[in-house]
Amino acid sequence: MTAAPGRRSSTFTRLLRHGFTDASAAERLLDSPELAPLRDDPVLLEALGATADPDLALLGLVRLLEAQQSPAARRELLDTLIAAKPLRDRLLGVLGASTALADHLTRHPDDWQALVMYEAYDLHPGVEEFEAGLAEATDPVSLRVAYRRCLLSIAARDVCGTTGLAESAAELADLATATLRAALALAEAAAPEDAGLCRLAVIAMGKCGGHELNYVSDVDVIFVGEATEGTDETKAVRAATRLASHMMRICSETTVEGSIWPVDANLRPEGRNGPLVRTLSSHLAYYQRWAKTWEFQALLKARPVAGDLDLGEEYVAAVQPLVWKAAERENFVPDVQKMRRRVVENIPVAEVDRQLKLGPGGLRDVEFAVQLLQLVHGRADTSLRSGTTLDALRALAAGGYVGRSDAAQLDEAYRFLRSMEHRIQLFRLRRTHLVPQDEAELRRIGRSLGLRADPVADLHREWRRHAGVVRRLHEKLFYRPLLDAVAQLATGEARLSTEAARERMVALGYADPASALRHLEALASGVTRKAAIQRTLLPVLLGWFADSADPDAGLLNFRKVSDALGKTPWYLRLLRDEGAAAQNLARVLSAGRLAPDLLMRAPEAVALLGDGDGGGLEPRPRAHLEQEILAAVKRADGAAQAVTAARGVRRRELFRTAAADIVGSYGTEEQPAEADQGALVDRVGGAVSDLTAATLAGTLRAVVRDGWGSDLPTRFAIIGMGRFGGHELAYGSDADVLFVHEPRDGVDEREAAQAAGKVVSEMRRLLQIPSSDPPLLIDADLRPEGKSGPMVRTLTSYAAYYRRWALTWESHALLRAEPVAGDEELGRRFIELVDPLRYPADGLGDEAVRDIRRLKARMESERLPRGADPKLHAKLGPGGLSDVEWTVQLMQLRHGAAEPGLRTTRTREALAAARAAGLITDEDAATLDEAWVLATRVRNAVMLVRGRAGDTFPSDPRELAAVGRYLGYGPGHVGDMLDGYRRTARRARGVMEELFYGAAER
Fold it and tell me: For residue 352, which of 545, 649, 707, 922 sits 20 to 30 Å off, Cα-Cα?
């Protein structure tokens, strides 16, 4: 076969044409003595070229021939190889797909004869045939050899296409069943006394239980043990545990022939911390009292496979009723979906894009979606109770629980992805779900799946296509049939019955499924473009609504917004085309009452939720807000119309702020929840405070223009106090202010005072007029003499009062004073006036400190609402806002003159400055900051959820759950939220008592 120098031999060219990548090495192998009789046989080259990896197949064949014990044995193999096409295809197919099975054949060179048979019973062996194949095994080593021989026949039929994916997976599960039985028999033979004391059943779980096993996978099991007649139960369970442990070792331990596969019993009650073997009654007691949702999901695939099969059947019969009640559990759907998300989150970042099983669009997505639907509908429809994913998917489609087209696409995708998984594992018989990166391995996998033109590129394209189908459909699978059930469009397709649709809505967390279905019908019925787009959007939206604490409210609010905007072309286009808009809207509409109420009054604000020209959810700077409001005031006819316009801007911007807060707290599929809770609080407080200041500025301009034209006879300024001055307003906060004026030159003081008084009165009236916009309440009770004093004073009057009559509490209150609207120069001079009061040069005397402490103690005892739980009161309770703020403010009063950083109206800034100045330790400062942020978040959450302000957690369970979701607690974790709040507040109270009520010189 030697070619002339410089020329390629014809064999070399033929090898390349038949798919060899290293034709030179292949030529050398074909020239080996073992293949001399077939060197020029075209049948061999054709057969090798048909394999997944011709180079690998040829090398494996040469190794197998070399391993034959005699020339006669080698001659028999070669003759059979050429004469019998079934053997040729099977043997070379295996050698071209699996180096591990080629190694087995090299160690056991006679095992190729297991591939010769081509009878009907040989094509589809079951447990009985595999038991016969393992029957001669007498120890763990011989069991491994027999197991590999049986595996060889399964792989041969698989790579040749004699059996499909579902049949191969079922055969692998049957082989595992036979192997477990053989291993248990070896264990019982080694300990006959133990075998006589107990009945032991082996229950297959996972893919083995579902009759859909991989080539290399942990075999999940649960053990059930009972005493034989006359045996003590404790002794029997110990004996069963020894047998079960030995059986697991027989399968799992590595010998000279390797291992078979690990036997994993971690799906048992209490996992690896629980006993390996339990009695049936012990299993039931656990499942009835302690089991989590995922454990019932796992039991879908429970199947007795070895040991005492009668006991196994008793076990399955006993747990099945519990499985089909799992969908009735609180937070069932969110629990299942959360577990799926947790699986994805735990994948190493470097592996996510290569994960065939666990990654987005992977096998687990199909399996979870199918199991979720089975658990919801399987109680009423027994046809769905299959442990096999593809069988269950087919039954779901037949019953109308899944659209036929969706089911067909998922079936195709699942078969392709599982086939990829099989080919990857078969190569080295190693447990992996990662798509390799080596091009040669990708080429082999692609060719084995029939992709011959450009195997690597075609494999990547097909893999991504199928993964994309799964990613797109797996969540919608649960929701789309609900629309088909109510829209009633296509004829001839099975649909969800009304009862089945109701069951699914209940499982999703809808408290009023009948109303929810009516909303869906109203939204999705008909043949209009609007209805068609809604049918596309709603499957996704329903999932997002279900992920909230109040799905009913989310769907109802969506219907209201759609009714208001449905004929507006940009609305549905926004939701369809702008990725973030639809999910942002779903979050906002289902998170509570405040944001939807603000939106319903002006539905066009939906545009803010998109990524385009609506401005997005970023808070607008105060200067821009003031500019817009003043421009609106200028265009208006009269003060009333002007303030209405200003309040309209305020409503829209409150919605923007609330929506951004909700989206930041919940997170989206693209953007996780904001990790820095303090940043969320600061953003809300700053945005609402800036908006309030801009609204007051616009209202002041409107009132002055309406009553006096361009100039008021007196200069006029508004000073923000309390949370307003501190840039810490919550959604429902009043605006605490002081009003100050100064008559212009030549203006009578009485005239100036009357004008200033009219301005204040008219501003308050206009901002509180009942309308579709939320009122802005102005509170001036922090003025000199409180409610008994004049509403507005001149700067000179303030100076005289503070010089002669100021009390400690007034100096305390002035710590928050900051000009917010009106005459800037007058506001600046007011601050110059009060700075010596709030930052006294010599600090506070002992008597003043005692006054502040007495006032704080009286406030704690008198102002806490009757019946409220003090430990859960975010404002006045131990460790709440008041504790933190008074502690910080005491430090400001005492040290503000010496420490410039303390001269701020903002709590968190002052706390950071106190830490920098060494007035408080880092740990104590962090404790107070955490408590202040959490208490502020609680108050914001209550307002968002209930639509009205509150300082304590709601009593209504659904509202309480919504507060929990906003604070980052998943479904069913309300208790954890309350415990977490109490713990944080308790630590803050400890710090407060030391710093505020501690040593006077602190």
Answer: 545
| Six-digit token string for 808 | 């400690």
Tokens 């086939």, located at residue: 419
CA 663 → CA 605, 636, 769, 961, 978, distances in Å? 15, 34, 31, 17, 22
Q: How far apart are CA 299 and CA 464, in angstroms?
A: 31
Burial of 650 (0-12, 13-18, 19+ CB in 10 A): buried
Which of 617, 595, 649, 707 shows the shortest CA–CA distance to 943? 595
Q: Considering the entire predicted model, what is its pTM?
A: 0.73
- Residue 613: the pLDDT is 44
Give the separation between CA 730 and CA 252, rounded to whole angstroms.
61
Pairing state between β 714-720 and 735-743: antiparallel
In 3D, which of 874, 908, 875, 876 has the Cα closest to residue 892?
A: 908
Instruction: Write out pLDDT tens, residues 937-990.
Output: 999 999 999 999 999 999 999 999 999 999 999 888 899 999 999 999 999 999
H-run or E-run covering 778: strand 778-779
For residue 821, the surrounding DSSP H or E stretch is: strand 818-822
Convert the pLDDT of each residue in 130-151 to its tens digit: 999 999 999 999 999 999 999 9
Question: Residue 892 corresponds to which tokens in the numbers above?
Answer: 């400001």
Cross-strand bridge partners of residue 306: 202
For 231, list phi and psi in degrees, rounded to 5. Answer: -105, 140
Contact 255, 144 (CB under 8 A): yes
**pLDDT tens digits, 246-262:** 999 999 999 999 899 99
pLDDT at position 119 is 55
Rounded to whole angstroms, the Cα distance separating 589 from 551 reads 9
Retrieve residue 31's tokens. Answer: 């020239």
Q: Which residues of 556-574 are buried (b: 16+ CB within 10 A; e: fewer)?
A: bbbbbbbebbbeeeebbeb
Beta pairing, strands 714-720 & 818-822: antiparallel
Measured distance CA(718)–CA(601) in Å, rounded? 29
- For residues 370 and 365, give the distance between their C-alpha atoms in angstroms, rounded to a whole number: 9
Tell me, letter by letter, the H, E, C secondary structure of 406-426: HHHHHHHHHHHHHHHHHHHHH
Class of residue 957 by CB neighbours under 10 A (exposed 0-12, middle 13-18, buried 19+): exposed
Gap between the Cα atoms of 759 and 775, Å rounded: 18
Residue 549 has pLDDT above 80, yes or no: yes
Strands 818-822 and 792-794: unpaired
Structural tokens at position 41: 């046989």
Q: Strand 714-720 relative to strand 263-264: parallel, antiparallel, unpaired?
A: unpaired
Q: Token pair of 993, please?
A: 């008592």
Specify the higher pLDDT residue, 256 or 739: 739
| Host H or E run for residue 577 | helix 569-577
Separation CA 935–CA 908 (nearest Å): 13
3-state helix, strand, coil in the chain (%, to 5): 65, 5, 30
Q: Give the residue among 954, 876, 889, 960 at the shortest CA–CA distance from 919.
A: 889
Residue 727: DSSP 8-state = T
Q: How far is CA 714 from CA 707, 724, 761, 833, in A?
A: 13, 24, 15, 19
Q: Identify which has the larger pLDDT, 709 or 284.
A: 284
**Tens-place pLDDT, residues 655-682:** 999 999 999 998 877 778 888 999 999 9
State how far the Cα of 2 lies from the Cα of 8, in Å rounded to an integer.
9
The DSSP string of 73-121 is HHHHHHHHHHH-HHHHHHHHHHHTT-HHHHHHHHHSGGGGGGGT---HH
What are residue 878's phi and psi, to 5 degrees? -55, 130
Residue-level pLDDT at 604:
86
Q: In the structure encoding, which two tokens stand for residue 661, read together?
A: 């807060």
pLDDT in tens, 202-223: 999 999 999 999 999 999 999 9
Which is it for the CA torsion 241, 244, 246, 252, positive or negative? negative
- Please tell me whether residue 202 adopts helix, strand or coil conformation: strand
